[in-house]
Every structure is written in C-alpha cells, then in structure tokens.
Design a protein that fits this description.
The structure holds 2 protein chains of 2 kinds.
Chain A: H1 5-15, E1 22-30, H2 38-47, E2 50-59, H3 63-67, H4 72-75, E3 80-84, H5 87-90, H6 92-96, H7 103-124, E4 131-135, H8 156-172, E5 177-180, H9 182-189, H10 191-194, H11 197-203, H12 209-226, E6 233-236, H13 247-250, H14 264-278, E7 282-288, H15 291-300, E8 312-318, H16 322-333, E9 340-343, H17 347-356, H18 372-378, H19 389-401, H20 415-420, E10 424-429, H21 435-444, H22 457-465, E11 469-478, E12 481-494, E13 497-505, H23 514-528, E14 533-537, H24 550-553, E15 557-560, E16 563-567, E17 581-585
Parallel strand pairs in A: 1-2, 1-3, 3-4, 4-5, 6-7, 6-9, 7-8, 10-17, 13-14
Antiparallel strand pairs in A: 10-11, 11-12, 12-13, 14-16, 15-16
Helix pairs in contact in A: 1-2, 2-12, 7-8, 9-12, 14-18, 21-22
Chain B: H1 3-15, H2 36-50, H3 65-81
Helix pairs in contact in B: 1-2, 1-3
Classes of the chains: A alpha/beta, B mainly alpha.
Chain lengths: 590, 82
Amino acid sequence: MKSTYKDYLELARQIGETPRGTPLSLAVFRSCTLEPIEPVVRVELVSEGFAPTIRFFGYNIFEQELLDPAGEYGKGAYDVVLLFATLQEFFPELIYDFHNITPLELEKKTQEVVHRMEQLVAAARRTSQPRIILTTFDHPGRWYYGILDAQRDYSQKEALVHLNRSIAAAASRHKEVYMLDVQDIASRIGKKRFYDWNMYYHSSLPFSSEGLVEIGKEIARVMFAAYGKTKKCIVLDLDNTLWGGVVGEEGPDRVIVGPTGPGRAYYDFQLQLKHLSSKGIVLAMASKNNPEDVKEAFLKRKDDMPLALEDFVITKIGWGLKPQSIQEIAQELDIGLDSMVFLDDSPVERELMRERVPEVYTPELPEGAGEYAAFLQELHVFEKNIYSQEDLKKVRIYQDQGKRASLKQESASLEDFWRTLDMRLTIFVNEKMQIPRLAQMTQKTNQFNLTTKKYSEADITRRMEDPKWQVFSWSVQDKFGDNGVVGLLIVKIQDKKASIDMFLQSCRVIGRTIEQAVISKVALYLQEQGVTLITGEYIPTAKNAVVKDLYPHLGFTKQAENVYALNIEGALPFLPPWFQTIHMTPQQAV
Amino acid sequence: MSTEERIKSIMADSLEVDRTLIKDNASIYTIAQWDSLQHLRLVMALQEEFGMRFGDREIPDLVSFAAIQEAITKKMKSHGKE
C-alpha cells in the first residue's frame, strides 16, 4: 500500500503507454516544475480502470496558454484541468515581503489572487467544459515573525488561512471545481519531508519524492471523486474487525471494544464507520457467528460501541460463505457488486472474496486494529457521496422493517479455492505438549463443539495416558500462515467400538473441510487398531447449531435423535484431495 | 542488490530504457532519453533509494553512471564516518 517514487516509476514502465480503460485526459498548468509527478498520477489512474493521457503545459504560463486562440490548449478538449499554483509565484509578497504589507493591502492582494483563479477557471472553460482542480497554498518555511507570529494582530498564518478559504469559497461558486489541498498534504507528511530545496534551486521543483507521491495520489483521489468512482456499501466482518476477539468464544462481555482502554482502536474504527453511514454509505454485515451471540453483544455492549445493530441495513450472520452473503446483499439493496467494499481481518476470507467475487473491492487490512480508523480515512473510495435520494429511501425502508434476510445454502463448488489455499494438515495423536492448549479449547470453543464438555489439563492428561482413550488434535497451515492447533477429537475405545467423547474445532477454520479430512484419517487410524464402528452424539446447546448436521455430512448414519454411527469395516470416509499434505504424527505402526 | 545494481535499476526505470542498456559507461551522451526532465526523475529516485539528498550544485553533475556511483559511494562513506 505504501509505494515509493521508485515503485511508481517501475509500475509506470510496466503499464506502458497505452493501457486499456476509460479514456481520461488531464491538462496540467503549474507555477513550478511538476513533470516528475506524471508516473504517480498515471499509475493511480490506471489502477482504477482509466486510460489516462496527461499533458503538461508551459512552466508558469497560465493565461497565455489558456487564452491563446491558436494555442495547443484550445485545440484539444480535456476532461480535467489542474491549475497548480504556488505561493512563490502567485503571491510572493506573502512570503518574502510580509513585514511591508498592511492589512488593507493584504486583503486587496488576496482578492486579486482569488479573482485571477476565477479568471483562469473561465479561461479553461472557454471552448470546452473540463472539470477543474484548484490548489490551496502552503507556506513552505517558518513564519516571518517566527514564534511571535501566532500572537500578532494579523499573522502570516492567518493571512494564508484566509487566502485558502477565499479560494475554496470561489471554487464552490462554480460547478465541478474541486480543491487539491496541498497545504493539508504538506502538514500530513511534514514540511521538512514534503519539500526539497536543493531540487527547487536547481530546477524549480519544490517537492521531495515523498511529497510528489502524496500530491500525485491526492490528484488521483480528487479525480476519482469527480468521476464518481466511489462506493456505496461496506460489508463488515465482526470478530477482530469491529471488535477484538471472537464473540462466540470469549462471550459478549469479553470482546475488546470501548471508549477507553485497549478497545479504543475498535471504538474509533466504528466511529469512522458511523460517520460514513451518516454520509449515506450503507453498512452491512457478513459474520460467521451465531445470530444470538451477535445480538447479545450489541445489546450488552451498546455503551461501548458507536455502532448499533440497526446501523447495519442488512446483516448476514451464520455459517454460510461470505461471497454468497455479499451477493445477496447486493441483490437486496439492488446495487452493483462493484460499488461494494468488503472489510475482513482474515486473509482467507479476503482471498475467497477476491477469488469468487472480484467485482467487490477487498482491500488488505493493516496489521493491528490501531491502524484501522486511519486506514478507513485513507481509502479514497468514499470520497464523494453519490448515493441518490432513491437509494437512500430504499435504505430507510430496510432499516424500518428491520429486514434481516436469511442465509441461503452455499451452492457452487469451492474445490478450486480450497486448492489455492495450500492447506497442510497435521494430526497429532496423544500429543502431551499441547495439553494446555487443548484444555483451553474445551473451555473456549462453543460453536463447533459437538458435546461441549469442559476439560481441565488433568482430564486431558488422563485420557492421553489411558490406552482405552485416544486424543487427536490438529493444526493447519495455509499460504497465509500457521493457524496453530485448531481442533480436538477424543474417542473412547471399547469392544471394537470408538465413541466420540469430544469433537471441537476453532471457528476460525470452519468451512474448509478440515473436519472431513480429520475424520477420514482418524477412521483409518482406528481401523488399523481393529475398530469397526465409530459413534458420535450431538448435544445441542444455545451456541452449537453450526454442527447440528455435522455427522450426516461426514457420512455417519442416524441411529436415534442426535446419535450417529459410522461403520469403518469397509470403505472409509471421503478424504478431500485439495489438501497439499496431511500428516499423522507420530506415524502409526501398521 | 549491490549499490551498482541498485543504481542501474533506478537509471533504467527513471530514464525508461532497457536495463541491459545501462552499461558502466552509460551517460547523458549515450542515452538519448536522458533529458533534463528525466534527470529530475532519476535524481529523485536516487535520493529516495539511498536515503540521501544531493546539493543543488551536485545535481547537474550526476550525468553518468560513473558520476552517480562516485557521488553515492562518497556520501555513504562520509555518512558512515559521522
């Protein structure tokens, strides 16, 4: 996400001269050297689907170029005209002669500059109707009166603020005139880093490479807003995105979010989302959870969260696939998939979304929730609210009715996706090193948990040591990293019969057929030990509906209500072929 | 990447020429694209890559691979001493 000037040079070369996309022409008029910005603007525009042509007009000649009837500018029609003005050329008195200016002269000169800007806008629109970008002015150094500036009757800083405000006011008097806030960019990265004075005295280019990159990105950002390349809907994950932790495991009281303490990062992120929502951006939710847990969390923690459940126009909470959910959301809101943004902390979910629904914009989330709020502000896709009145009405209807669409069953084949994950599964048998983690999982896992028994470390140790018992646990790695130990299966063996005492898995890895691979390998292992039948029971709780039909899915047959059995004398359960490797450790003696 | 390779790769990207054309004798006389504007891109990218800034009177002298390498090596050394 953070690109250097060198990156842009490289990318610009890769793109070449004629990329595909919507043609977009930009004419640049400027009072300083600015040409090196070209690759940055070009790459940014291309990445948003434009095929830009960028033309720089003569150095510090605005009126001559714009008004010359025989000139180059009049011959072409541009979509966007950037009028990039610097204080050094447009208002040098404010920098170099401030001590000699009276307030009256200052005001007069300010109005002159504003007037000139408006004249330039008119000149640029003499023969065509381009969108126009004006810039704010930045004062590149320290104030003339140094630390005393702030205390003066009319300070230099104030004069600059007044000038910029007047230009912005002028811009708003015209249609399709936008502001590029150069002063704001300078303050965001800091003047010392923004400017490069050796370059300036050598070639009238005042900006450092870092400054240029930021200006270039901002120009693109303004253009996206002007061209309505903005999004209408954000679809949000819950656990570790809107709050810290997993609500189904920690419980509503323990998820991390709040106006003070460590939950503030999530609180502020929610606040940013709330602001977007009040600007007309629709919030929706796609979460793998039990709806009751989520409702409870929003109810119990309402003082800790800026967002209420009602702020989400549509919620999809369940165990279905998020690409499916997002398609349903798009349908129900009647908006295009390409106007949606999907935010999820899980790289697997993001990958799946990009794979299945590439139209949805799925950005990388920064490492650490502390960056979330800032990250959201930097996303340029909400820059302009282009949500129509009609759309807003529809949103309200949804909110009024409290409509919560139910989840449809997943349908399409996911095998290709699973294959791309490069999953490597390791199944451990009676692995004592993991005892603390396994005990902890029995305490914390409430969703994917067939029997919901709570075991202490001693309970687990005893079962590992007893030859009648077998304790299987497993860890999964994929191309995004190591998920660690994520599941536990305990069986008791008696008379060639293995009954499942405990079967649980972390909900982080649900939906990836891991349990299928585990049961297949465990069945083989037990078969080799002479076992002929595996039995399992589903004990319903308030939280474990997700595994209600797990046993039939895995090939077990129903014996009685919630009791299932699997005969392993002959064929073994299906072993998914999309795992890259499946290891059993220690290797069993055959 | 060695300093030499880094310089050459930046020269290729900012002057928009093939990497193989950046030989040890590459200069403003051997590379047709190397005009004053490309020069600015080159200097900016070099400053960024090596985390250094060139003086206004050094900038016009950086017009060959040899000159660039010498200037950067010198700066690296003096930075190392400080």
